[in-house]
Amino acid sequence: MKLIVGLGNPGKEYENTRHNIGFIVIDKLLDYYKCNDLKSKFGGLYTQVMINDEKVIFLKPQKYINLSGIVIKEYIDYFKIDVSDLLVINDDLDLSVGNFKLKMSGSSGGHNGLKNIELNLGTKEYKRLKIGISNDKQIDTKDYVLGKIGSSDIKTIEKIVDLCPMIIDDYMVMSFSNLMTKYNKKC
């Protein structure tokens, strides 16, 4: 069983913000796999689907992003999912808009959601799909990540979001190192 988590903040005021790129990708995946019947459990909205004969849980934690690890830990424990089968989709200030990167593990890079995941899981060894939102140094970081995605960036980000179902299809049948080789060169 795999757990694919999109990070974001719950609530209408956070829709289409840079920090909610994980939620945006999960919504795209739910449409792609035709599984929009989200249920609530452990402070998250989730659904289970079968992809290539394997159960996959798509999860949107409903606690604020800096508490995402609490929700993820509950799902991992309850569904007995190995951390090696966790994929977290998050925004990344260090990648330019239009770029993304698959990573096997690594530091939080200052992302409070990833910090909380590391704290709750006790490891940095989990897979990520990081989607670039750039960084505007003239705006406070908190205000920037909680700001709406600008009209100039929407089309660029949509191209990455539209590619995500293909990435997940391949994730289900390829080793993660082969997946990184195939897609990371596109950055």
Characterise the protein shown here.
With 187 residues, this protein is α/β, with parallel strands linked by helices. It has one domain (2-184): Rossmann fold, CATH 3.40.50. The chain has six helices and seven strands, in the order βαβββαββαβααα. A seven-stranded mixed sheet has the order 2-3-4-1-5-7-6, sandwiched between helices. A hairpin with a 2-residue loop joins strand 2 (39-41) and strand 3 (44-51). Helix 1 (21-32) packs across helix 5 (151-171) and helix 2 packs parallel to helix 3 (112-121).
Topology readout:
Elements: E1 2-6, H1 21-32, E2 39-41, E3 44-51, E4 54-61, H2 68-79, E5 86-92, E6 100-103, H3 112-121, E7 127-132, H4 141-145, H5 151-171, H6 176-184
Parallel strand pairs: 1-4, 1-5, 5-7
Antiparallel strand pairs: 2-3, 3-4, 6-7
Helix pairs in contact: 1-5, 2-3
In short:
By secondary structure, the protein is of the alpha/beta class. It has 6 helices and 7 strands, in the order βαβββαββαβααα. It has helices at residues 21-32, 68-79, 112-121, 141-145, 151-171, 176-184, and strands at residues 2-6, 39-41, 44-51, 54-61, 86-92, 100-103, 127-132.
Mean pLDDT: 90
N- to C-terminal distance: 29 Å
Fraction in beta strands = 15-25%
| Named CATH topology | Rossmann fold
- Principal-axis shape equals globular
CATH domain class name: Alpha Beta
The residue fraction in helices comes out at: 25-40%
Largest sheet: 7 strands, mixed
CATH architecture: 3-Layer(aba) Sandwich
Instruction: Give the helices and strands as they follow along the chain.
Output: EHEEEHEEHEHHH
Count of extended strands: 7
